[in-house]
Amino acid sequence: MSAQSASATPNVPNFPNGGGAAAVLAAGIGSFLLSVFAILGDQSAFFKKLFVFYKPTGPLSGVTTCAMVVWLLIWLILHRRWQWRMLTMRRVSTAALALLILGLLLTFPPIADLF
Q1: CA distance 99 to 43
Q2: Which of 7, 23, 53, 85 is spaced 20 to 30 A from 79 at the CA atom?
Q3: pTM to 2 decimals?
Q4: Domain tally for the chain?
């Protein structure tokens, strides 16, 4: 191997990763919001009535529908803003993972009942 090829950096183009980062962060936010909406639907009489979209399922129908709509809107907004940008995926992934873990913790009744 020649000295020139060993020290040369590969010619790798930088492609924007904003679209992927938007999807990852939106998933974390959506997971967290699903838990928040579930707590609101369980703890608040106002939100319990507001989230009833289909009576046989009760507030669960509105909780899941609203969480999905907000998740898709956040994904769309972030994708449009970031689609041509090169972002640090470590920061985006860390934030998404933290939101996912927080959302998961909020689904456990002992923690959710604190609110």
Answers
A1: 21
A2: 53
A3: 0.83
A4: 1
